[in-house]
Amino acid sequence: MNPGNHHPRDADNTREMIGGYASGNLSPQEQEKLFDAALHDQHLFDALMDEQALKDLLDQPGVKAELLEALGPKPTRWSRLRHWLTSPAAYAAAGALATAVVLIVVTVRQPASRRPQYQRPASPPAAADREAAVVVKPNAAPPDAALNALSKPQATIPQSKPMQSPRQAEPPLDQLSGKQEQAARRDDTQQSPSANAPAGGVVGGVIGGVAPAPAPPVPEQPLSFSYTLLRRDPEGRYSPVTTPTFTPADSLRFEVTPNTDGALSLYIRNEAGLETPVLKGLPLSRGQTAAVPPSGSFSAAAGSTQLVLVFRRRQTASDSRELAPQAFRQRVRGAVEKDRAEPPAAAVGAPSSRVSAPSPAAREVSVEIAIRAGAN
Amino acid sequence: MSAVRTEIRRGEHNPLPVDDLPLPDPRLNPAELAERNQRLSHLKAALHTLGERCRRLVRYKLEGKSFPEIQALFEISSINTIYTWDFRCRKQLLEALGGRWEARP
After folding, report:
1. Angle, CA B15 vertex, CA B13 and CA B18 arms, to 5°
2. Which of A13, A274, A355, B25 is buried most, with the most CB atoms less than 10 Å from its CB?
C-alpha cells in the first residue's frame, strides 16, 4: 500500500466502479462495495450523488435504446456484407457453392474429354473386320490355287485358256526366301479375308470404337483378265508378239481386258530381283481394253526379266505406296519362260493369255511373265 | 355495533369521492419531458466525441452487460483494465458535457 496515495488500490478500483453505477452494470456485490467505500470517502460520496442525475436519466424508459441507436452508426451495405462474410453461415454457403461448381464442371467436361477409347474384345471377327485389320499371315489358302498351276515352268504360253487348274500349295511364309517373303507380305495384305483370317481375333484389334464395315457381297464371277504382249514395229504400230526374240531396244506394251472394274499395276523385276513399278493402280472398267502403260512403252533389259501384272478388284492403298523392290511375292511363274538352254534370244510364249482367280471371293489376280532379251 | 366500531377504527366511516382526490400521473409533465429530451440530446452529442473503444464500452454497458462480460468481449485478462477504461471514458464524457450530467438551466 502506498501511503502517499489518497486512494489505496482497493479504493481506486472502487472509484472506477462508479461508472457502472449510473448504467446499472454493477453486480450486487460490487454495488455494496461501492456504497461501503462511499461512506468512508466524501469525494466518492459526492461523485455518487452526481452520478444519480445520470442514473435517473438512464433509468427512464426508452433512453438507453435511443442512446444505443445514437452510438451505433447506420450500417452500410458493405459493412453488413463484411459482417455476414465473417459469420459461419457464409463459410457454409461458400463451401456448398464451391462443391456445386466442382460437380458441374466435372459432370459437363467428363463425357467430352474422358470418354474412354473403345477397344473391341478379342473375338472371332466378321469378314469385314479382317479386311480392316493389318494382318500379316502366310497365305496357304485356296485363293491362289488356280494360280498355283502356273508356277510350274511351261515351254509355251497357254492359248487363251483360263488358268484355273490348281497348282501346288504355296509354302508358308516362314519357308519362303528373303525376297519371296517380302513379296509375300505385300500380297498378303491384299488377300481375301477368308484366306488370311487368323484363328482367333484380329491382330492389334480395332481401336477407336469404329464399327466394322459390313462384308462386301461376294461376286458371282471370279476376277480375271486377259492380256496380250505387244511390240512396236518399225512403222510405230503395236502388234501382238509373234516371235520370241527381243532386244533391249524393243518397245513393249500390254493390252489388258478385265472382266470387272478394278485397278491394274505393272512391275518389272530384273535378274537381280530388283522390282521397278511401271504402272500402279490404273483404273480399268469391266470389258475395257486398255494399253499398259497407257502412254509410252517399256523395254526389257538384257537378260532375264519378269513382267508382273496385278489386277485388283478395287484400288487399295498399297497401290499408291512406294513398293519395295522385293515387295512382290512370286505368285505365278509366267508361262512364257523359255528353256534356258536355248540361245540368249528371248523365247516368249504366246502373245496373249487369260488369268482368272480361283474363287469369286478373291480380290486380286496376277500373272508373271518371264522374258529374255538378248544383246543388240 | 361491533361492525360500526370496526369501521370507525379503520377510518372507513368518512370516505372521500375519487374525483375529489385525483391519483398522481406517473408520466412526465411537459416540462420534465422537455428537460429529458434536452439532456438526452446533449448526451448523444457527447457520445459522438468519444473514441471507438469508449463507444464500444458504453454500448456494452447500455446493453446491460456486466463488467466480467465486458472483459470477455474485449478479451482482456484483468478486469481492472475494464474498470480503468470505464473510468477514463466516463471522465471524457463528463468533460464533453461541461462537467455536469444535468443540463444547465
Report:
1. 170
2. A355
Residues 6+ apart with CB under 8 A from B32: none
A7 in reach of chain B (CB within 8 A): no
Separation of first and last alpha carbons in chain A: 143
**Looking at residue A8, what is its pLDDT?**
41
CB contact under 8 A, A50 and B101: yes
Residue A268 to residue A339: CA distance in whole angstroms: 20
Tens digit of each residue's pLDDT (9 = 90 or more) over B49-105: 888 899 999 999 999 899 999 999 999 999 889 999 998 999 899 898 888 777 554
Contacts B47 to A, Cβ<8 Å: 67, 70-71
Interchain CB distance below 8 Å, A26 and B48:
no
Q: In terms of pTM, does the model score above 0.90? A: no
Among A137-146, A245-254, A288-297, the range of highest mean pLDDT: A288-297
Cα(B10)–Cα(B13) distance, integer angstroms: 8
Residue of A nearest to B43 (CA): A67
